[in-house]
Amino acid sequence: MRKNTKRRAPRCEYTSSSQLSFAGFETPFHNQLDPSNRWVVLSSQIPWDDLVGLFNRHNPPKATGRPALNPRVLIGAVIIKHMLNLDDRETIAQITENMYLQYFLGYSSYTREPPFDPSLLVDIRKRLSQELIGEMNEKIHGFSMKKSSGKDSGNPGGGEGGPVAPGPETGNKGEVTYDATACPQDIAYPTDLGLLNKAREITEQIIDVLHRKRPEGKKPRTYRKVARKAYLRVAQSKNPSRRAIRKGLKSQLQFLRRNFATIEKQLDGFGDFPLRHKLQRKYWIIQTLYAQQLEMYETNTHQVADRIVSIHVRPIVRGKSRARTEFGAKIHLSLVDGYSFLDTVSWDAFNEGTHLTDYVERYRERFGFYPAKVLADRVYCSRENRKWLKERGIKLAAKPLGRPSAKAVEDHVRPGERNPLEGKFGQAKNGYGMARIRARLSNTSESWIASIILVLNLVKLAGAALLWLGFSAWEWLESQAMPSVDPVLRYLRTKTRLRLNDEPGLAILNG
Question: Is the CB of residue 184 less than 8 Å from the CB of residue 435?
Answer without folding.
Answer: yes
